[in-house]
Amino acid sequence: MTKLVFTKKKTEHIFYCIIGLRGDLKGLDGKNNIEKLQTDVIVEECIQIREDQFNAHFEKDETIKAEKQKKLTETTLPKILGFIEKALSENARGNGFVVGNQLTWADLALIDTMERLPDLLAKYPKISAHKKLVEGLPKLAAYINKRPKTDL
């Protein structure tokens, strides 16, 4: 029998898999296979940012923590956010959405990621406009106003 061991990293991946399944069931994963693939790519990029954030934040060794933070700010974030900024620019029919022309769970993953990086929005105008668009959707705006405020 295989024993499943949970770590912060595995738990987060399982969480996103569950969210992805819910997205599939609710039609938030894209309209066709190409959009589903694009959605998964964006979500995986958001997961990478969060992993690097958590790895840096929870590192106990201050020297290693500084190295991880430097990698995050100088490599991971510019690469991934630049990629997403380009994806938003190239999705002309998307009306501001990352994939296709309607809300996907990639949009939700992106605004969740950017909520933890508010200082970077000025550097990425398409991502900033995207965040305003998605957070302005009536049901999501109502949820955001009612949800409990947390540090993470």
Automatic annotation (TrEMBL):
Residues 32-152 form the GST C-terminal domain. InterPro entries: Glutathione-S-Trfase_C-like (IPR010987), Glutathione-S-Trfase_C_sf (IPR036282), GST_C (IPR004046), GST_superfamily (IPR050213). One of its GO terms (biological process) is glutathione metabolic process. It holds the Pfam family GST_C_3. It comes from the Eukaryota. One of its GO terms (molecular function) is glutathione transferase activity. Coiled coil: none annotated. This is GST C-terminal domain-containing protein.
